[in-house]
Amino acid sequence: MIRSLSNRAVFVLGMAVTLAPTFVLSGCASQGDEAGNSVAAGSSGGSVSITAYRTGGGTSTQGQGGAPIYAEDAAASNGLLPVDSTQATGLMNDPELACSGWTEEPESTGSVLEFIVDVSGSMDKTAPSTKGATKWVATREALKQAIQSLPQGLAVGLTFFPNMPLYASEFPRPVAACVDTKDNVMIAPKDLNQQKRVLAALDAVQMERNGATPTHDAYNVALEELRTTTEKGAKYLVLITDGQPTQSLGCIGKGMTCYPEPTQPVVDAIAAAFNAADPLKTFVVGSPGSEKNDCTNADVRAWLSAAARVGGTATAGCFDSGPQYCHFDLTNEQIDFGRALTSSLETIIQGIINCDYDVPPPPTGETIDTSLVNMLYRDGTGAFNLVLPSKSDVCQIGWHFTDDSKTRIHICEQTCKQLQDDSMAQVTLLFGCTREQVGPTLI
Length: 443
Known about the structure:
The protein is of the alpha+beta class and 443 residues long. It has two domains: 5-105 and 359-435, no CATH class; 111-352, von Willebrand factor, type A domain (Rossmann fold, 3-Layer(aba) Sandwich), CATH 3.40.50. Helix content is 22%, strand content 21%. The chain has helices at 85-93, 135-149, 192-204, 215-228, 264-274, 301-310, 337-352, 413-420, and strands at 15-18, 23-25, 47-50, 61-62, 68-69, 80-83, 103-104, 111-118, 155-161, 185-189, 234-241, 280-286, 328-329, 356-358, 366-378, 384-387, 399-401, 408-411, 426-435. The protein has a six-stranded mixed β-sheet, sandwiched between helices. A five-stranded antiparallel β-sheet has the order 6-16-15-19-7. A three-stranded antiparallel β-sheet has the order 2-1-3, covered by helices on one side. Strand 15 and strand 16 form a beta hairpin. The radius of gyration is 27 Å and the shape is elongated. The chain starts with 14 loop residues before the first strand and ends in an 8-residue tail after the last strand.
């Protein structure tokens, strides 16, 4: 039957799933109420009706008495409502919900993460907050924990700098003159093999006690890796360093702490990456030592703060002049640096884990009704769950549209992590559609 677009507001699911193991399929759709909320066909006390999510104060799944059930309600666990395989098949084949049987497995917009890690000579020193370990040992162990905590599939790579002895120069040179890339790990989705590669690289890299700090050249190496990767998704850099550059772009400079190079060119490069057509955010972590240059006694945290600010990752209410800086300032002698770095990396990772899905185009001649959308998750064991809509755009469980255009769906953080930790997860979006009437109508 060809339906007119003017009828779209009354389309709801006619399928009911009870909390008991009973499955009911109603033969027709029901009418919306005066407020525009869907009303489940055949809904009765104690039942849960799977209806479509309605965007304007409407309902998703309905419980006893027709009350809406959202991700935050007790009936759902982590924003999920279990359904059996028969119910799931019925959902996907329901002509009112799935565009006459149309479903599409969406593609996550993904995330790509590149770490830029300072392994210059100063990182081989201890600090009061490192509890006897060198700054590098504490950094290495925190990075290992971070890599192991990454969800499967998130693409990750690793750049070390300088990873070679110091060679001073007054003239521009190729990047290989100050950044050795032999131990770098190319970007790839995290799986067991990629995790092993990154952990092995962290164990194998050696401190260069006479190594310079060519921050700008190292940043460009990592930036090029991100720009040329075929991995899809939002791109992020994490710069971990304990001070100022001692060589400028082109491997120019004496490479010594007493002769730091200007930081503004690095800040400008980070800003340019963020303001590009394909924006790239840069997180900055200031290790112990960035609060005081060992030779000049200068506090260099202002440039790290500026780098984070122009890189799109500033913390709320921050100032480049401090005391609340825009970067992750881990220079407090009273903290445990290793634990603080681990916590900072956890914060960064949670902020970039991406569970955004673009809404795919509908079949020819049909129009998606964005008030009739459901999400079905099949886990690694083959069990099915409905991912329920959240009551709020600021959410931990469930999902919601990212903005009024309703062209992208966001799975909330806690539910997202559960799905991403399941390497066999399949997410299917189910859409209600209306069909455009083509040609004259015969009366």
